[in-house]
């Protein structure tokens, strides 16, 4: 629906035609189409059995909304010149929309008025049976069978007619080309570049410190004494003693400790930097 709206605006812009308030009209028709799509989503995601009320509400929104959407498109197609679509294609849509409108009315009458329900010997309408799973199934001998058959058949034909109308818009898009949106990566400010370089440098020196911290123990870290001291104090705060075993318990008691134990030493530097910033 959005693409049809955009196609309408682009077509008349290329034709040099100012359509004025029809732009707003096309936008409102698009919103109506979105509303019908929400109804269709409710029908698809809420089953008729356990969620009958939601399913029926979605079906009502979809059928009414899409019918009004088609009429809105037809009004714009017959009013604006030159036409976006050939006149014979618009006439086909008009015929299909008339059929859809009639089917919607017929379907609603069958659901609520139940004109095809058989009468009993006294001429009274029988009591409608209830079903434990909310899915109606009638035998051919049931007085509700004919009405249920008419309602279900009209619903399926209605859905097929809607699909036919949607397929007619393939012609409008057959001479349209869509392009992916352009993206441009901006340069980082000098301050962020400095921070990025500093982060990479820190993790180059601390990537081998896995699950072990000992302030001043260079044999364990394979680093100069000043390196772990800088990592543990300058960047993350001063601690009197760094634990050898960095576990989840120590993490809770010392939340400021470096979390390089969660970074695989073989991981590329750029990924280590990413995970550190988001940890």
UniProtKB/TrEMBL annotation:
Transmembrane is among the record's keywords: yes
Compositional bias (Polar residues): 243-252
A GO cellular component entry from the record: endomembrane system
Span list, region Disordered: 243-262
Coiled coil: none
TM regions (residue ranges): 24-46, 58-80, 92-117, 156-178
InterPro entries: CWH43_N, DRAM/TMEM150_Autophagy_Mod
Domain CWH43-like N-terminal: 12-174
One family name in Pfam for this protein: Frag1
Subcellular location(s) of the protein: Endomembrane system
Keywords, comma-separated and alphabetical: Membrane, Transmembrane, Transmembrane helix
Membrane topology: Multi-pass membrane protein
Protein family (similarity comment): Belongs to the DRAM/TMEM150 family.
Protein name per Swiss-Prot or TrEMBL: CWH43-like N-terminal domain-containing protein
